[in-house]
Amino acid sequence: MAAEIVNPRTDTDTFPIDPVFALHRGGKMEVAATVPVRDADDLSLAYTPGVAKVCTAIAEQPDLVNDYTWKSNVVAVVTDGTAVLGLGDIGPEASLPVMEGKAILFKQFGGVNAVPIALACTDVDEIVETVVRMAPSFGGVNLEDISAPRCFEIERKLQERLDIPVFHDDQHGTAVVTLAALRNAAKLTNRSLGQLRAVISGAGAAGVAIAKILVEAGIGDVAVTDRKGIVHGGRDDLNSVKRELASYTNKAGLSGSLETALDGADVFIGVSGGTVREEAVATMAKGAFIFAMANPTPEIHPDVAHKYAAVVATGRSDFPNQINNVLAFPGIFAGALQVRASRITEGMKIAAAEALAAVVADELSADCVIPSPFDERVAPAVTAAVAAAARAEGVARR
Fold this sequence. Notes:
Elements: H1 19-24, H2 40-46, H3 51-60, H4 65-68, E1 74-79, H5 92-110, E2 113-118, H6 124-134, E3 140-143, H7 150-161, E4 166-168, H8 169-188, E5 197-201, H9 205-217, E6 221-226, E7 229-230, H10 240-248, H11 258-262, E8 267-270, H12 278-281, E9 288-292, H13 302-308, E10 309-314, H14 329-338, H15 346-359, H16 378-392
Parallel strand pairs: 1-2, 1-3, 3-4, 5-6, 5-8, 8-9, 9-10
Antiparallel strand pairs: 6-7
């Protein structure tokens, strides 16, 4: 017998409307004017004939578009709906509630305007061409919920063709927050990143980006695992992304399973789902760090993790130390847009992580190695650090 489909519009005493649907009815966003149009004089300034002066000025000096339109403070949040949250390939229409949510987080936490754009295509070149053609309207592009390995190629090609920041948050936002939390966990236990050997479960978008930023930041060693075990150069089943990953990770030359990699490891970072057996967790080094970030079910439940780890983090808001991308992407874009950066560099990402870690540097405890998303110090600190790093790296244009 087919399952009964509950109508979310139902609103009776017997079947009260779901509060989630109530919040989403009509969408979570609207367009609001920043200038009044109260009379004919206002209309003549905001629209014709007055607007023609601004258009002519921009035509003669294209950079003026950043001063006289909203371009320099608006981001396109772009998806094709192929890797939405933990829901997978649910299509562009079904992705829109998430993209709207992302857009309001940009505004709430970074003061950045954002427009959700769900594309009805999944071909890499079609996506790239579509975004390139829309780019004159935006100061930056945030790629969201695009499946791997396509997401890597899309980001690379867009950044090659555009002179505005392109940032795949599933990769880099996760990586920045993870690095910040790991820096503070190391500081709390009087260790440096260079003394740590990390294991990452998951070689998708987040896993690859985390590995890259940890290597850039000076981690002692990091091994990445996928469904077939440790990623290493001796495997003949690696795609181009994983072959490159193998070239700068796993200095110890490990091979075999995730359990093999965990033996004696100082850090576990989970971005894959699945479950890690407690017996394998027990083989980790004393005072280990466990960042089990699969949501809603962590790879290692905190109750198990706390038996063996000095610091435990998850992706959930109901446990301490939530690794939440909202700590990173609003401030990163705000800083990049503030200086009209042409791109977001590795140095800017590391600067964001350092600033994020510093917010709670004087408040460290096992339950506080990363700030709350609602800590009002976060966005200003990340914004300032990213802007300064952009200037230092020569990608700022003001």
